[in-house]
Amino acid sequence: QVQLVESGGGLVQAGGSLRLSCAASSTIFRIKAAGWYRQALGKQRELVAAITTGGSTNYADSVKGRCTISRDNAKNTVYLQMNSLNPEDTAVYYCNAALQYQFVERNYWGQGTQVTVSS
Questions:
Q1: How far apart are the C-alpha atoms of 88 and 51, rounded to whole Å?
Q2: In whole angstroms, what is the distance from residue 66 CA to residue 30 CA?
Q3: I need a labelling partner for 58 at 20 to 30 A (CA). Which of 3, 38, 49, 68 fits?
Q4: Which of 35, 21, 9 is nearest to 117 (CA)?
Q5: From CA 42, how far away is CA 5, in angstroms rounded?
Q6: Beta strand pairing call for 91-101 and 30-39
């Protein structure tokens, strides 16, 4: 069973940076469109950033100018670079991606990685 594996979360001070990574556990499954979502305690999950297969991106207003989503197709990995972090960015961050194997695509969620920003 293929999985999306996230890494890069942690504890950072306000103003700091983190880079999250999301990779498929099996390289025969190719990441197509992907996005990063976050869910803060007591709040609904929300889209942070998304990237298409072709590399087009879109961002939530709350992170525009501070976050960059990117992909490395050779590594079959999607990244989220987060700068100028503030305590409001504290949440569990989830990767969501369409994985393709032999012309079949399915949507997957990662297990989540905790990002905590201290003031």
A1: 23
A2: 27
A3: 3
A4: 9
A5: 24
A6: antiparallel
